[in-house]
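Table S2 (text version). Query chain:
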Amino acid sequence: MRILIIHGPNLNLLDKRDRSIYGEESLEQINRLIENKAIELGMEVEIFQSNHEGQIVDKIQEIMKSGYAGLIINPAGFTHYSIVIRDAIEILGIPVIEVHLSNIYGREDFRKESVIAPVCTGQISGLGSISYLVAMDALKLLNK
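Corresponding structure-token output:
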């Protein structure tokens, strides 16, 4: 079972951002947790991070031809306005789970709406790095 994990903009700077919101872990530490979870679940995982909307869309389109069983995406700031990421996800035909480290519904008003969520299988937010791990468990169960 192959899955893709996409980290959106500024997640490469987690260790520089507000730790009370984003936690203590760097993106590299989160990626190691993801890789260890993949081994535990018998998954093959590819991890991709970009600060550029078009690169994220290109990566989503690539997986349509690559035999992936699911996508986990943290669109970060693109969550609230990226119709092009939404449109790319909408045509995938595989389970997609949107994740967020923070609880976007407990933050500023502009962060409370996701244009991505309606085209995803589900959304997990507010659990820090555990959000990714729970999403991986969910993909495993969805692909039984």
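Notes on Table S2: Strands lie at 2-7, 44-49, 70-74, 96-100, 122-125. The longest strand covers residues 2-7.
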